[in-house]
């Protein structure tokens, strides 16, 4: 069959293509966007990149809260009454067409004076005249063209998001000083052996002091501004009685600076200002390289990033008003419209609730609720409007109180001792003892040289290359993983990943796919007439289960039903030529034996006799058995599922024998389970997807979120793995282990350089030029070594 | 006064000018987004109807 693809979004149009302007569209939404673009001379959008659009989903009433001036005030960056600037996060930005159309918004509404897209962050900064177009109108306009901004409680709560540029400044200062000091050192380099007393070149000797004091001035901002962090970190480490790698670095920097200053004051020599500035510059370069961030991803999200800012409260007189969710009190009546999120636990009072808990549990199947039922926060209403009465405040709801657990206040990074730091301790001790031993030796033989040798050892042993090995190896590894769609929060995560010995998995949404599910038929076989009737009845229904089942059944001729009726929350029935079929819940079809159905099933009743049921199974991700089999060789595995035991037999088949399976686990249970394992000394990796795994992800040593769409959702974690790459997870763990090996190898290499340098230092013949050559040489060779090695490693990865 | 002082002064002034230019560019946010400008510079002649002068102006505004 020929597939017709939508001109706007590129999706398959199915049988119901809408033809407009001799182009095909999958739905009215896409057609409308095309109309808007073409009537405003923006059709270049489609030339830039074909089928670039996103189907708009507009529920205008969803943005009613944007009429409230206090909320507008908090969301806007700038607001003087008639000009407002707002920075909106738009997850659907994905190509150059998006940039182009969003930067030409003024063609759609002249009140928008300028708009600028930040593609890596997926934000657009819009300046507009607020007396002509309100923030709400602006957001609705964006939503109508398929660029719906994501406005959440997090935007409301933390307004100030300052970008930290201090590292770039420091790098700039150090680089600037390094370059200039190098230039100013040139006279000294060429005039090595010829000082004034040896009858050296008069011209250079005369101006020696000018050059030296200029170098001194250049080195001041390097030591006191650019290198400040190393001193702070070293002091912090020493205070907590812990020798980190920054201790020898800080020691090296201060000795370099002091000795050089004293040398030029007493005119003993040129000092080591070139090495000093170079050292700080290279160290900062390593830091900069390590600091790769995926600005469009957030690893710190909590429920606030998903919750709305305000909801509609129904007052006793039937009046409706927007209320900020923090102000909700117990007993408030809320109106939740289609596609709106329920921010608080409550009781359903009125309406037909079909709630999608997919981002809480990962389960894609919506849940039906009847009035009087308890509803938990975090679900999204999919039908028409419902009314609920709140039972708790937002922060005390079932889901959100998970965040009051102390684990969310903990900073994981402070607990972890990195490989570099653990080497730093031994390194510092040995360097200090070599320095003292050498000084003692020279005190005995030639006391004038003792101080010289002592400082020379500290200078040459400054662990620049060691400090660079880990940032460059792991930083490069981070980029390689990123290209494979495995996004890690920081380089430390790679080190932790390499140490993992236990892996815990969530079931729904993690090892099962959210999109696909399969169904098998159990019961009396259906006749071909019944099959045709079944398919045609399902065709008319919009229920997600009906749609799934419809797509799975074999093609049938399309016939028009004589009668069709949909019973909300129960099922559908249809009839033709006296044949009658009922499809739906067990009660609806008159099936009573099935008391404890664990799996979702759809029952069939034909002409008032019960026929059988379609049982839906989770579809497991590709290659899941394989992954688990490989992993079980080196890792301890377990499954923690929030679901019932319905899938237990199938899981047992798929997974290696004796893999522990735990069902009916609440979010707190998962967290406690991991804590328990950690108390036994295990290094635990948690792989999950929903907000209900958030506690476990935070508690684990490495929390990895699986995501079908990286842009949409992921709870706070250390890494985000694209769902299609799930089967390579174990390869990534092995690659991390190899990366750590590379770091260790580079440590050996840099120690070699240190031994060579120490030879010069201990024998008292360290010339500034040797330090100036050795230091960059060791650093650069380490950088080349690690980059080449990690790239070889990365090439093997899929 | 020796010419070396003049030369040093000139070289320092030049270096400091570049350094200030760097600081100013970081401050204005040039290093915050290193991707979008590379795409933006390739947009041109995107109008279907011919209104070049007006469009250029708007393009300028939106690129601010």
What keywords describe this structure?
heterodimer, A: 798 residues, alpha+beta, Alpha-Beta Plaits, 6 domains, seven-stranded mixed beta sheet, 43% helix, 18% strand, elongated, B: 64 residues, mainly alpha, 3 helices, 0% strand
Polypeptide structure, described:
The complex is a heterodimer of chains A (about 800) and B (about 60). Chain A is α+β, with helices and mostly antiparallel strands and about 800 residues long. Chain A folds into six domains: about 1-55, no CATH class; about 60-155, 2-Layer Sandwich (Alpha-Beta Plaits), CATH 3.30.70.100; about 165-290 and about 420-470 and about 740-795, no CATH class; about 310-360 and about 375-395, Calcium-transporting ATPase, cytoplasmic transduction domain A, CATH 2.70.150.10; about 480-515 and about 620-735, HAD superfamily/HAD-like (Rossmann fold); about 515-620, Calcium-transporting ATPase, cytoplasmic domain N (3-Layer(aba) Sandwich). Chain A is about 45% helix and about 20% strand. Chain A contains 25 helices and 28 strands. In chain A, the strands form six sheets. In chain A, strands 16-28-27-26-17-24-25 form a seven-stranded mixed β-sheet, with helices on both faces. In chain A, strands 8-7-9-15-10-13 form a six-stranded antiparallel β-sheet, with no helix packed on it. Chain A is elongated, with a radius of gyration of 33 Å. The two termini of chain A are about 35 Å apart. The mean pLDDT of chain A is about 80. Chain B is mostly helical and about 60 residues long. Chain B has one domain (about 5-65). Chain B is elongated and about 55 Å long. The interface of A and B includes residues 120, 121 and 180 of A. Chain B: This is Cytochrome oxidase maturation protein, cbb3-type. Chain B: InterPro entries: Cyt_oxidase_maturation_cbb3.
């Amino acid at each position: 069959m020929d597939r017709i693809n939508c001109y706007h979004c590129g999706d398959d149009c199915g049988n119901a293509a809408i033809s407009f302007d001799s182009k095909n569209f999958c739905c009215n939404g896409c057609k409308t966007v095309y109309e808007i673009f073409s009537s405003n001379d923006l059709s270049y959008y489609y030339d830039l990149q074909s089928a670039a659009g996103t189907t708009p989903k507009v529920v205008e009433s969803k943005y009613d809260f944007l009429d409230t001036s206090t909320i507008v005030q908090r969301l806007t960056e700038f607001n003087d009454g008639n000009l407002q600037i707002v920075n909106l996060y738009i997850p659907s930005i994905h190509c150059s067409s998006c940039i182009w159309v969003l930067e030409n918004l003024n063609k759609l509404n002249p009140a928008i004076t300028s708009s600028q897209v930040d593609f890596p962050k997926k934000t657009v900064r819009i300046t507009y005249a607020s007396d002509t177009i309100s923030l709400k109108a602006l957001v609705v306009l964006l939503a109508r063209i398929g660029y719906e901004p994501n406005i959440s409680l997090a935007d409301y709560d933390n307004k100030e998001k300052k970008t930290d540029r201090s590292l770039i400044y420091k790098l700039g200062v150090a680089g600037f000083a390094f370059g200039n000091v190098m230039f100013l050192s040139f006279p000294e380099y060429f005039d090595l052996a010829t000082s004034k007393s040896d009858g050296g070149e008069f011209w250079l000797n005369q101006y020696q002091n000018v050059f030296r004091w200029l170098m001194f001035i250049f080195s001041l901002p390097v030591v006191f501004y650019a290198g400040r962090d190393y001193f702070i970190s070293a002091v912090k480490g020493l205070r907590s009685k812990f020798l980190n790698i920054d201790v020898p670095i800080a020691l090296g920097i201060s000795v370099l600076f002091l000795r050089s200053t004293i040398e030029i004051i007493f005119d003993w020599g040129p000092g080591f200002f070139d090495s000093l500035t170079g050292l700080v510059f290279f160290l900062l370069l390593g830091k900069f390289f390590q600091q790769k961030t995926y600005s469009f991803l957030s690893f710190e999200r909590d429920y606030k990033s998903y919750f709305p800012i305000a909801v509609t409260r129904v007052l006793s007189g039937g009046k409706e008003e927007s209320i900020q969710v923090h102000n909700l009190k117990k007993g408030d009546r809320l109106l939740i419209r289609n596609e709106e999120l329920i921010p608080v636990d409550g009781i359903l009072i009125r309406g037909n609730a079909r709630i999608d808990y997919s981002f809480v549990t990962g389960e894609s199947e919506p849940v039906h609720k009847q009035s009087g039922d308890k509803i938990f926060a975090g679900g999204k209403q999919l039908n028409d409007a419902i009314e609920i009465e709140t039972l708790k405040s937002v922060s005390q709801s079932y889901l959100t109180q998970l965040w009051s657990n102390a684990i969310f206040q903990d900073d994981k990074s402070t607990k972890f001792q990195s490989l570099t730091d653990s080497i730093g301790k031994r390194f510092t001790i040995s360097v200090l003892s070599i320095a003292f031993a050498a000084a003692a030796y020279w005190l005995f033989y030639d006391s004038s040289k003792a101080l010289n040798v002592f400082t020379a050892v500290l200078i040459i042993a400054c662990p620049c290359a060691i400090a660079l090995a880990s940032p460059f190896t792991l930083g490069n590894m981070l980029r390689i993983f990123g290209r494979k769609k495995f996004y890690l929060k920081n380089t430390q995560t790679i080190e932790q990943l390499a140490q993992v010995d236990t892996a815990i998995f969530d079931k729904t949404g993690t090892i099962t796919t959210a999109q696909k599910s399969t169904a098998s038929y159990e019961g009396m076989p259906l006749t071909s007439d019944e099959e045709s009737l079944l398919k045609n009845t399902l065709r008319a229904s919009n229920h997600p289960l009906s749609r799934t089942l419809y797509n799975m059944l074999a093609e049938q001729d399309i016939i028009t039903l004589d009668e069709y009726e949909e019973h909300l929350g129960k099922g559908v029935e249809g009839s033709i030529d006296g044949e009658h079929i009922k499809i739906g819940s067990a009660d609806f079809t008159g099936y009573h034996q099935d008391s404890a159905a664990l799996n979702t099933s759809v029952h069939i009743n034909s002409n008032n006799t019960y026929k059988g049921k379609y049982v839906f199974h989770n579809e497991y991700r590709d290659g899941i058995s394989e992954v688990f089999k490989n992993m079980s060789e080196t890792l301890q595995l377990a499954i923690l599922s929030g679901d019932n035991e319905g899938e237990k037999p199938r899981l047992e088949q798929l997974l290696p024998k004796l893999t522990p399976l735990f069902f009916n686990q609440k979010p707190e249970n998962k967290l406690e389970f991991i804590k328990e394992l950690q108390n036994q000394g295990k290094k635990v990796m948690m792989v999950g997807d929903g907000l209900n795994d958030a506690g476990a992800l935070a508690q684990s040593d490495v929390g990895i979120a699986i995501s079908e769409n990286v842009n949409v959702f992921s709870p706070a974690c250390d890494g985000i793995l694209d769902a299609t790459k799930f089967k390579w997870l174990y390869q990534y763990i092995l690659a991390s282990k190899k990366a750590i090996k590379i770091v260790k190898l580079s440590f050996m290499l840099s120690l070699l350089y240190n031994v060579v340098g120490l030879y010069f230092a201990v024998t008292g013949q360290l010339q500034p030029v040797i330090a100036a050559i050795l230091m960059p040489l060791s650093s650069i060779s380490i950088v080349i070594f690690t980059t080449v090695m990690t790239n070889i490693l990365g090439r093997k990865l899929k | 006064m020796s010419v070396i002082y003049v030369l040093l002064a000139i070289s320092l002034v030049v270096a400091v000018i570049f350094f200030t230019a760097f600081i100013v560019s970081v401050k204005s946010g040039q290093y915050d987004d290193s991707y979008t400008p590379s795409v933006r510079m390739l947009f041109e002649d995107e109008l279907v109807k011919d209104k070049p002068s007006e469009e250029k102006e708007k393009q300028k505004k939106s690129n601010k």
